[in-house]
Amino acid sequence: MELAATLPKEEANKTTGALIGLAYHYLGEAALNRLMEAVMASNLLEKVLADAWETGRVEGRVERSREMLLKFLTGRFGSLPSGLDVRIGEISDTERLDSLADLAARAATLEEFLAAL
Asked: What pTM, to 2 d.p., does this model score?
């Protein structure tokens, strides 16, 4: 399975299929079952890791957007009201955070920003 991971996706699938066929032909059903379990576990692990990586990437982008928005608001308006960081921390949509950053740049006062939040 490790060798298949180094091949391009299409070749890896063909190689894995060929190995499964050979295992069944030469080693029997028990070997085929063990090989299929390994392939399924490998594919599942790959999917879980890919999903986890993507989730972490998105969450990291959201967290960075929150931090930058709060930093920008502090730099522009000074001290922020208590609880604003919590309210912004509850936002998990990057598009919403981007629009709030635009609003923070356009708002004449912190109160104007808060009213639109």
From this structure: 0.59
Q: How far is CA 110 from CA 51, 96, 100, in A?
A: 38, 18, 12
Amino acid found at 52: A
Q: Give the integer Cα–Cα distance in Å for 37 and 10.
A: 20
CA 85 to CA 93: how far, in whole Å? 15
Q: 92, 71, 81: which is closest to 114 by C-alpha?
A: 81
Which residues, in sequence order, are CB contacts of 1 under 8 Å at separation 6+? 16, 38, 39, 42
The amino acid that residue 17 corresponds to is G
pLDDT digits (tens, 9 = 90+) for 3-57: 556 667 777 777 767 777 777 677 777 777 777 777 777 766 677 667 778 888 8
